[in-house]
Amino acid sequence: MSGAVLIRGVALALVPDANGALRPDDSRHDLLIEEGVVARIAPANRLDGDGVTLVDGDALVALRGFTDLYGRLREPGPPGRGTLASETRAALAGGFTRVLCAPDTDPVLDDTATLELIRRRAAEEPAARVLPMAALTRGLEGGELAPLATLGKLGAVAAGQADRALEDASVLRSAMQYAATFDMPLVMTPRDAHLGADGCAHEGAVATRLGLPGIPVAAETAALARLLELARDSGCRLHVSRLSSARGVELVAEAKRSGLALTADVGIHHLFFTESEIDGFDARYRSAVPFRSAADREALRDGVRSGTIDAICSDHAPLDGDARLAPFPACAAGLAAYDHFLPLLLALPALLDLPPSQLLERVTDGPSRVLGLDTPESAGAPVEGMTADLILVDSGAGARTPLSAGRNTPLDGVGNLAECGLEPAPLTGAVRLAFVAGEPRLDTRRE
Amino acid sequence: MIRYERETVDAWLNAMASSLRPLAAADPELAMIGIRRGGVDVARRLHAALSLPTPPGELAVAFYRDDFDRIGLHPVVGPSDVPFAVDDRHVVLVDDVLASGRTVRAAMNEIFDHGRPARITLAVLVERRDHELPIRADVVGHALGAAEEEYVELDATALVVRVGRRDELTRTPR
Amino acid sequence: MSLPDPQLGEGGTLRHLLDLDRLDAALLTRILDAAEAFTGVNDRSIRKVPLLRGKTVANLFFENSTRTRTAFELAATRLSADILNVDLVSSSTAKGESLLDTLRVLEALQCDLFVVRHGDSGAAHFIARHVGDSIVVVNGGDGQHSHPTQGLLDMFTIRRHKGGFEGLVVVVIGDIRHSRVARSDIAALVTLGTAEVRVVGPRTLLPTAVEALGVRVFDDLDAALADADVIMGLRLQKERMRGATVPSEAEFYRTYGLSPERLARARPDALVMHPGPTNRGVEIAASVADGPHSVILEQVTWGIAVRMAVMSMIIGDREARRATAPGVAARDIGTSDPAGTADPNSRGAP
To answer: What is the mean pLDDT of residues C129-137?
Structure first.
């Protein structure tokens, strides 16, 4: 397909059915993509299909492509854990047409050469758009500043420290002031440099029983309090990345109420899993940001519902097959998220008692606002004139062929969350077509 | 099913005691060991009848059975108890029923791990003609030509011996 | 979702011994009863039984421990098994060969039982999940998680002196946070119906949410020792000073050391236990460790019988599983005779 595309008879919104599962709503539309933008949206069968490629939108929903505020795309880096090509394709399957890619590549994304490499490689087999996140400090070591202004000019849209703590408060403050000078938002995961540094699980009842070194909530909240104070002091745009605790959500809410310009996100898995999942030393649930207690999960869900948490990210961390072939504390941490992101997302409106449009806001408008990107606020619905970054979703679809190089997910082959010991919720939904700038970059219709 | 009542079984025990009395008279150090569980009751009665000065011993034999590779560790109740030195001793080994001979083999192996007896005399209340090993009793209360599918069971409290099919017998509570 | 527990086989048999958390009271009691039977072996001239003759026990020690390794070795020897000691502390695994690769090599040597001691919590579970069906795993201590044979021998010692667990007050003192022995003891004590399990120590040495293990927390040693029936001390390691959890051994002894004066607050017939090696003058006074309440040396002795029981039960259960596997004739299985009334070895015995 190239040139203009007309999607015929497609829905533009999802609604819950009698069982709470999502389905396309009843109105049908024609949507014309031309020159990379959504040129027209009209009631179904109104638009002329001559000379354009026709796509049958029956049983599908057209949505704005999602923006991921944290995905590890693994390139440059050692082979076996994914490439820009494989992971950006997998991102499309997750519904993301834009990914803010983590800076803890190898080498770290702290210089122009690495940034250029990423841009070039991303352009070779384009799938989801790659928005580079620069390392805040050289090598992520927390010592010297990375050249944020230069990297920003070359396309970096944010800076951060990936999963690493930044120990020295004076360096942190200085980095914040510097980033503020060039209006670059900081994406920071609150984590203390020492507290819980050798931990591998949430410090709570399960880790206590299993004798696993824990990462206490205080490791997140003490670091978060410090981030908030220094953000206030420096005036930088702070985005708190991948919250995991109730107290963390509380601190963010308080800071917002006090007038601090602040945003926050949560990884999608943290809205489902708790510390119970690691029982029996199940390393499939070993995550860099640990899954905490049921009360923490409730607070994270409340945060998404209320908007205290502005966005849901993937926290995608593909690992190779060997990564879990060791005792729990020696295993690599992280879950591959893209291949199951969409079904998990579609299960959330029922679990959170949240209208689908508000939920979609958390993966579209929310992330765009965080990055200061110019996109129309439409709660996930396509609007005329917007760039044609679109996904066509089949909300009832069953399992799809996975695309990420990482199979480190407990959800492969799972049709209902009850199979994982969670509250029952069917996992359905697949992206059938994904467009980036009007160009079809993923087509799973024949599966 | 055939039942041998108390009077009959008593008579068998008396006969056994009579056979053993000359041995006890000749050797004051004569010791008696019963094989759990049935053999322990028989040994106790014989020991009392003979008034042996050396206290009686008990063997669990669980650790010497030849069926570990088939059924695993047999449930054991307490350790064996041999309260006398076995070296150079004349030991009377007592059991309630001698059938295949495997239990007696296991018991003898265990005795030899306690020391080197001078002599072992085997005394059983009932001997079936069902030997799988070349082991025969020296002192027998009653010789039985029981059919292959029949089992022999001693009710130690009532002092009754039953011979019958497996489903005919009840397990005596111990 | 939890992975299935690899420890238990069909019919409540023990497939591996990894921890005491999910073993029910009946199974724990079965092990203690078997251990009781094995105590007699040590009193004879030939301290051996032929149960594991022809079987090979491999000691896989990724962490140094002469004490535990010797105990397992002795237990295996008394069962007539062959022993293979594999030194993994300085071997290729330390040089980077993966744990799994090491396991594959050892499996090729056709051992029957692995005793595993490793510095990572969950190591024994990992190994149990990745060995072939014919190998059984006994956890000799994994990180801070579990030391099940120590827990069992501690329970055996308590049962020997106190008859049972009902109505007992048991106090565990010291570094519970880093202690796999404490976790195993607490799990077993709770399962066996101990009236009250108390933990006492500075909060830096008590794990988060420790109450969830079923214990009552005390800050003050005197209060904790009131009416205690059993006192279990734990070793305080030197790293704790460096890790800023305890200021000095002297202060620890002053606040949580089991001195004769403190001991006097417990019941007159209280037992003093310790997994060893003891730090005299730190967690326990020398006079208490050597005194009439102490059963510390006895624990070591019972450790042999307990390990004999565990190894023979686990291998025995494996043999029984194999024998009843489809395709194998099951005619002579005498499992229906727990009272042992009939001749257990005769053909077709009930």
So the answer is: 92
Taking the Cβ of residue B80 and every Cβ of chain C, the question of whether any pair is shorter than 8 Å is answered with yes
Q: Which of C120, C127, C176, C239 is the best substitution to test chain A (most A C-beta atoms within 10 A)?
A: C120
> CB–CB of C2 and A327 under 8 A?
no
Residue C179 to residue C220: CA distance in whole angstroms: 20
b (16+ CB within 10 A) / e for A190-228: bbbeebbeebbbbbbbbbbbbbbbbbbbbbbbbbbbbbb
Query: What is the tens place of the pLDDT at every residue in A221-278?
Result: 999 999 999 999 999 999 999 999 999 999 999 999 999 999 999 999 999 999 999 9
Residue A53's H or E segment, with its range, is: strand A53-56
Query: Right CATH number for A65-371 from 3.30.870.10, 3.90.1150.10, 3.20.20.140, 1.10.540.10?
Result: 3.20.20.140
Q: What is d(CA A270, CA A252) in angstroms, rounded to the nearest whole number? A: 17
User: Distance between CA A347 and CA A343 in Å, rounded?
Assistant: 6
Name residue, tokens 């508000």.
A358
Residue pairs between chains A and C whose CB atoms are closer than 8 Å: 91
Q: Name every residue whose Cβ is closer than 8 Å to that of residue A277 and which is 6 or more positions away in sequence.
A: A284, A285, A291, A410, A420, A421, C1, C2
CB contact under 8 A, B109 and C50: yes
Per-residue pLDDT averaged across C142-169, rounded?
A: 97
For residue A202, which phi and psi values (nearest 5 degrees)? -60, 130
Q: In Å, how far is A307's CA from the nearest CA of chain C? A: 29
Q: Break chain C into its structural domains and give their ranges.
A: 10-145+301-323, 148-299
- Given a cut of 70, the residues of chain A with pLDDT beneath it are 1-2
CA nearest to B76 within chain C: C34
**Residue C183 with chain A: CB contacts under 8 Å:** 209, 211
Which of A394, A390, A398, A401 shows the shortest CA–CA distance to A434?
A390
The answer as to CATH 3.40.30.10 being correct for domain A5-62+378-443 is: no
Contact with chain C for residue B162, Cβ under 8 A: no
Q: What is the pLDDT of residue C347?
A: 38
Q: Which residues of C touch A277 (CB under 8 A)?
A: 1-2
- Model's pTM, two decimal places? 0.90
C-beta neighbour count of A165 within 10 angstroms: 20
Q: Could you tell me if A209 lies within 8 Å of chain C, comparing CB atoms?
A: yes
B68's tokens: 């570990």
User: Would you state the structure tokens that stand for residue A181, as one six-digit string?
Assistant: 């000078």
Architecture of domain C148-299: 3-Layer(aba) Sandwich (3.40)
Is A233 among the catalytic positions?
A: no
Two tokens, residue B29: 């150090």
β partners of residue C170: C197, C230
SS3 C10: helix
| Residue that is written with structure tokens 């209902």 in the block | A416
> If contacts are CB pairs under 8 Å, which of residues 127-146 in chain B contact chain C?
130, 132
As a whole number of angstroms, the distance between CA C178 and CA C145 comes to: 8
The phi and psi torsions of A6 (rounded to 5 degrees) equal: -115, 120
> How many angstroms separate the first and last alpha carbons of chain C?
43
Residue C97 confidence class, pLDDT cut points 50, 70, 90: low
Q: Is C108 exposed, middle or buried (0-12, 13-18, 19+ CB in 10 A)?
A: exposed
pLDDT > 70 in chain B, percent: 95
Place of tokens 């026709």: A54
Q: B89-125: per-residue pLDDT in tens?
A: 999 999 999 988 999 999 999 999 999 999 999 999 9
Q: Counting beta carbons within 10 angstroms of the beta carbon of residue B134, is it exposed (0 to 12), middle (13 to 18) or buried (19 or more)?
A: exposed
What superfamily would CATH give domain C10-145+301-323? Aspartate/ornithine carbamoyltransferase (3.40.50.1370)
ipTM of the complex: 0.89
Query: What residues have CB less than 8 Å from C209, skipping those under 6 apart?
Result: A204, A205, A208
CA distance B32 to B57: 6
